[in-house]
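Researcher: Last one for today. Full complex below.
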Amino acid sequence: MDYKVVGTSVPRLDAVAKVTGRAKYADDYLERDMLIGKVLRSPYGHANIKSIDTSEAKALEGVEAVITSKDLPQIKFATAGHPWSLEPGHRDVEDRLIITDKVRFWGEPVAAVVAVDEITAERALKLIKVEYEVLPVVIDQSDAIKEGAPIIHSERPDNIISSFGNGVGDIEKELGQADLVFSNEFITSTVQHCHIENHSAYAYVEPDGRMTIVTSTQIPHIVRRIVGQALGMPWGQIKVIKPYIGGGFGNKQDVVIEPLTAAMSLSVDGRPVRYALTREEVFIDTRVRHAMKFNFNTAVSKDGKLLGIDIKNLVNNGAYASHGHSVTMSAGSKFRPLYDFKAIKYSPKTIYTNIPAAGAMRGYGVPQMFFALESHLDDIAKSLNMDPVGFRMKNLIKQDYVDPSSKNVVRSFGLPECIKKGKELINWDEKRKLYGHDTGNIRRGVGMACFSYFSGTYPVALEAAGARIVMNQDGSVQLQIGATEIGQGSDTAFAQMTAEVLGIPINMVHVISVQDTDVTPFDTGAYASRQTFVTGAAVKKAAVEVKNKVLEFAARKTGLEPEELNIVDCKIVEPRRGAVVCSLEDIAMESYYDRMYSCPITSDTSVNMRNNAIAYGVTFAEVEVDVPTGKIEVKEIYNVHDSGTIINPMLAEGQVHGGVSMALGYALSEQMLFDEKTGKTLNNNLLDYKLQTIMDTPAIGSAFVEVPDGAGSFGQKSLGENTTISPAPAIRNAVLHATGVAFNRLPMNPQRVFEKFKEEGLI
Amino acid sequence: MDYKVVGTSVPRLDAVAKVTGRAKYADDYLERDMLIGKVLRSPYGHANIKSIDTSEAKALEGVEAVITSKDLPQIKFATAGHPWSLEPGHRDVEDRLIITDKVRFWGEPVAAVVAVDEITAERALKLIKVEYEVLPVVIDQSDAIKEGAPIIHSERPDNIISSFGNGVGDIEKELGQADLVFSNEFITSTVQHCHIENHSAYAYVEPDGRMTIVTSTQIPHIVRRIVGQALGMPWGQIKVIKPYIGGGFGNKQDVVIEPLTAAMSLSVDGRPVRYALTREEVFIDTRVRHAMKFNFNTAVSKDGKLLGIDIKNLVNNGAYASHGHSVTMSAGSKFRPLYDFKAIKYSPKTIYTNIPAAGAMRGYGVPQMFFALESHLDDIAKSLNMDPVGFRMKNLIKQDYVDPSSKNVVRSFGLPECIKKGKELINWDEKRKLYGHDTGNIRRGVGMACFSYFSGTYPVALEAAGARIVMNQDGSVQLQIGATEIGQGSDTAFAQMTAEVLGIPINMVHVISVQDTDVTPFDTGAYASRQTFVTGAAVKKAAVEVKNKVLEFAARKTGLEPEELNIVDCKIVEPRRGAVVCSLEDIAMESYYDRMYSCPITSDTSVNMRNNAIAYGVTFAEVEVDVPTGKIEVKEIYNVHDSGTIINPMLAEGQVHGGVSMALGYALSEQMLFDEKTGKTLNNNLLDYKLQTIMDTPAIGSAFVEVPDGAGSFGQKSLGENTTISPAPAIRNAVLHATGVAFNRLPMNPQRVFEKFKEEGLI
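Model: Here's the assembly. Have a good evening.
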C-alpha cells in the first residue's frame, strides 16, 4: 500500500508536553484539601492477624480515618486486568480482599490511614498495634508444592492455582520413537517492571454518590469494573480517569491500588484521598514477573528435525493469583506457531508462594519460555554440530500455518527474512567462524534466538475496542479512544491512521489522550501488544465512517456518488477528472451550519476483533565475556522484527530500544531477592536491584521486515512486548558460543557466571 | 401520555453539589502558576486614543505582558452567541476588536495587563499612560439619530445598525378604515442581568499549540468559533470547557471576555491566565437589556376587534452591535401569533449610542414589546369600557393559526385555559369590581397581561442539537449534551427524558454537566428557551437509539423481534405475555462482554430542528399603591403558562419564581443610569442598582395548563424566558386599575410614580 502518513516517522504527539514537563500525570492533578492515604505493612511474610488496635492512631490529630479489613466489604475479587467474562469458568481467581485478613507476603498491607498530610499518616501508622501469629514461609515454587508446605490460601491447600495445560499430537510417541531426546532444566528469576512512574491514584465521591478515581493505569475501563466488584458498587457508579502514564509494562494492567484508594475516600465521606506508592512499596506490593522452572524433553531426528517437545513448568505466582495461570498459559501457547513440532505437551503448575504476587509483565510469560526454549535449541544444535541458524531454519513453520490450538492463522511470515537480515547485520557467518575458539580471559561469541508472539489475546479473551471521531468546522478532528497511551506512543500511531484515512495532516488529528470511562469509548486497555492491531481496527473503522459521511455531504453538493469522490490533502477531489471539488473545510462547515442538512460529523464505533496476527522476530547478539570476573558485555545487539506494516518507524525503533534494554537487565543483572526464612524482599530499591542503566546499554540495532498482514487494518502486527523476548536467550547463546558454557538460569550476573565458570573449570 | 419520570418533580441533579459548595464553577478550576489578567478602562464615554505608553507598566516586576490594540489581530468580529451562518447576509455585525482602538463607552478596555497576581496587575494598570481625544457623547437612542449626533462607528455614520422591519397585511388600509385608532408611546429602561456569578474565564495553550479556555458561558461551541475568528486561529485549534454556571440570562450568550482571555494567554507564550470581571465591571463591560421606545398606532373596531397595529421602535443598542437587531426583530416577531390582527407593521431602528452594549437578556426584546403592547391594550380596553380579559379573549388567535411571517404553526393553544385559571387564582371578577374605586392613600387594583413566545429560533437561525448516550455494564447511562446547564435545570430535564425512554430510574442517568467542545456533541447553547424543546428532541432521539440497540440484543437472545419487547423498570419485558425476559443489566453486560456480539451500546446523534412551538402564558397581579410615597407593592402575582408538557413541575415552578422576580425588578425598580455628558454609568453596583431582593418579593404563584404540543419530543414547549415577559405589564395594568393612572415608562419606581401622580393630580 502506498500510505502517506502511516509508515512515516511522525514525532510523538506528546513529545513537547513531556519534555517541557507540562504533561499531567496522576500526581499532577490536584483537588482542594486532598487527604493522604498510607498503609501499614506486615513485617512478616506469612502470618495470621490476631488483633489490630487502631485506637491510638485514630486519636492522633490530623488522622481522618484508620481502616482495617474489618471495616471493608468482605468480597474476594480478582485483580488481573482482563476483560470480564460472562462464563464463570473463564474468570480470574478471586482471592483478594481490599485489605487482607491474613498476611501472605512480607510488606502486605494490614491497615490503612487517611490523614491530612503524609507526616501525620506516617506517624499514625506507628501507633497501630498488630498482634501476629507468625507462620512458616515458602518462597520457592518447588518447595511450595511439597508435602507439608505452608498453606497460603485455605481454599487451595496444595498451593496450586492451576495445573491446566495443553498439547497437540502424541508426545509419548514422538519421544519414544525419536533418534534423540534432549532433556534440560531452565530457571528464570523474579524481576520487576521498574516503570519510572510509581503507582499513584486518588479518589473522591461526587455529590451525586458516584466515585471518581484518577489513576496511573493501563486499563481504566477494567479498573472501573474491579473497583465496583471489590466495593460491591454498581459499575456505572464508578468513573476512572487515566492521565499521562509514565510506563506500566503490565504492572498497571492490574488493579493494584485503586480499590483501596476508593475505600480510603469512602472512609472519609467521599473526600479526596491520594494513595501513591513509594518505589520501595512498588517492588513488594504491586506485581512481579513470574519466576519459572522449565523441564524440557525434546524429540529430535538425527538430521536435526524437531519432532516433539514435552515441557513442564513450575511457575512461582507469589501470594495472590493476579494474572497467574494466564501468564503460564501464554508461555505455553505463543511459541507454538514457530517451529514445526509434530507433538507438543505443556504441563504447567502455577503455584502460590509467600513472595509478592506475580502478574503481567512485558511478554506475559513468553520471555521466560523463549529463554528456555531458545537456549535448549542452541544446546541441541551444538550437540548435533549444526549451525544454530541453520538448525532453526530447518524447523520453522511455513506461511499459512494454522496453530492447531488457537486456530490462529499465520497470514504473514517474515521471520526467514528477519533471520537473513540479522545475520547480515551482525556478520554472523564470519563471526561464528572467528569466535568460539578463544581460551584466554576475554572471549567473544555470537548468538541468536527467535520468537513468535500474538497480537492481542484472541481467541483466549474478548478483544473489544472503540473509537470515536468528532470533526471540527475546519476539518480537523478529535480522536477519542479507550485504548491507553502509556508511553508506548499509541496515540501517535492512532493519529497517523486517522490522518491516513481522512486525507489530512497529522496535526489536524487531536487525540484525547486522557481516558474518562464516562465518555471514552470502551476498550479493554493497553496490554498484550494489542492496541495497534485491535484498536487500530476500531480507529480505521471510525475514520472510514467519518470519511464516508464527508463524501456523502460532498456527493449531495456535487450531484455525484460518494464513490466517485475522495479526500486528498484536505480537499474533496474527483479522481476521474483529477479535479478539486471543494475543500474539506467547506464540507465540515456545511455539516455544522447548513440550514437544511446540518448534522455535525462524528463516528462512535467499536470492533470485536475475532482474529489474531502472529508476529515474529529474532535477536542477534555479540558478547565479550571476561572469564575471571564473570562479567558479560554485550558488544552488539540487533532485533529484527516481522511486525507487519510499521506504522511509525521512529516509535518502532523506540520500542526496540526499550524492550531490548529491559531484556538486557533480565539476562544479565536483575532479580528480586527474598529472605528464605521471613520472605522479606531484600533489594526493593533501585540501588540494590540492578536495573540496567544507560551506561550498561550498548547501541541497540533494530530492523524491520515489513510483510503486511491481512488481518491488520494497515497490515500491522504486534511489536511492543515482542522486543523483550529474544535478547536474553541470544545473549546466553552468544556466551555459549564464546565460552562453551551453557547458562540455564537467569540472570547471568557476574557472581553466578563466576561460580559457573569455576564449576566448569574455566577458572 | 402516561409518563413515569417525565412530569415528576425530580430534585435537581446538581442540588447537593450546589448546596454543599462542591459544584465547580470557572473560579474553582485551578492551574499551576496561573497568571492574572486585568484591563485598563477608559474614563471617557467617547474618545479617540491618541497614544498609549505602556513602558512603565511593562517594567514593573511581576508584570508578564501589557497589551493594547496594536499588539492584537486587527480582525473585527461579532460577539453575539448565534450559530454561524453560511450566508454572509445573515451574520451578526462585525464591529469589535479584542481591545478597541477607539473608546465608545465609559469603561471600555483600552489596554490589558498580565501579571503574577492581582495587586501587581492593578498597580501596572496605573502606570499605563493614555492620551485621549475626548469626543461628545450620546446616550439616548432618539438623540443618536438626530442630525449632527456624534458618530460612534465610522462604518455607520447615521448610528443605525439596522432599520429592517416587517409586516403583514395592509396597515394603511386598516388604520384608514378603522372606527378607532389608538396611539401611544412606551419607554423601557436599560437593565442588567445580575447573574450571581460574574464573567470569569481562564485560558492556556497546550504544548501542541491548541488553546483551552475554561469559561462561564451559555454557549461553549460558539465561544470556540468566535475566539477562533477574533484571533484568526482555526476553530479546531480551540477547546472550550464550560463548568457549572451561576446564571447567565443571556449575558453569557455573548462572547464577552474569552477572546481577550485567550489573547492574554498568547501574550505570555500560552501560560494560563485568568481574567475575571468584578461586579462593577460586569455592569459596564458585558451586556445590558435594550432600552426601547415604542410608538403604537392601533386600529380597532368599535366593538373591540383589533384590526391593525403599526409599531415603531427605537432601540438603544449601546456602543457595539452584539445581538443588536436580532433582539429588535425578536421583539417584533414573537407577539404575532397571539392576537388576530389583520395587519401588522413593525418599523424598528437599532441604534448605536455611547452606553454599554445591549445584548441578549431573558426574553430577548419581548418583555419590552409586551410591556408596551399589553399596556396599550389595557388602555384601549379602558377606553372601550371593556373588561381587559374579555377584550383580549375576543381578539385571540385560534389553534392551528399559522404565523404568516415565520410559518410557525400554533399546534397547541392553551392560553384561553391559562387565562381562565389565572382569573380564578386571583379572583379576578370579584376584585375588578371591588377595586378601582379607591380614593384614599392606599389603593388596590388587579391587572393582567398575556404573552406569546417561541421555543427556539426556527426559522430565523439554525437549531442544531446533539446528544450522546453511553450505556454502562449495569444498565445505567451517561448522557452527554452540548446544551448547557446554566442553573435552569436542563440537565435534570434531559435526565428525566432519558430515563423515561430507557425505562430506568433517574439516578441511573449520569449527566455529563461539563461541556468540552472537543468531545461534547455540538449544540448551539442555552438561549431562546430552546433546550427543552430542541435539545430535548436530540436527547429523545439518542435514548430511542440506545433503547433500540438494547432491544436488538434482547431480540437476538430471545428469538423475538425487537418490536415485541420493551424496557420497563430496568427489565426487558415481553408485553404481550406480561413476562420478564431478563434484566436490562443482563443485556448491558452482554453488549460489553459477549464473545461473539460484543458491541457496547452508545448513540451519538444530532437533530436539526426545523420546527417551532409557540408557548403562551398570562400574568395576573394585584397591587397596593401607596399614593403619597409612590410605592407600589405587589400583593399577589400568578403566572399561568401553556408550555405544553411540563417535564418537571418543581423546576418549572422555579423558573416562574426566577422569571417573575426578574420581572418585578424590571417593572418596579431596576434601571441603569448614565451621565449624559460623559456616558459614565452611575450605578454599576448592587447597592445603587436596585435589584429586587427576597424582601421585595411577594409569594409568586404559578400554574400550568398542559396541552402537549405535537412538535415537542414529549409535548413540551419553551418556558425559561417566558416567565419574565408578562409580569411588568400586568403590574402596570393593576396600577392603572387601582389609580386610573397609565404608566408608560419603566421602571415604575417610587420617584417616577410620585412625579406622575403629582402630574396627574393625585397628590
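The two ends of chain A are 57 Å apart (CA to CA). The mean pLDDT of chain A is 97.
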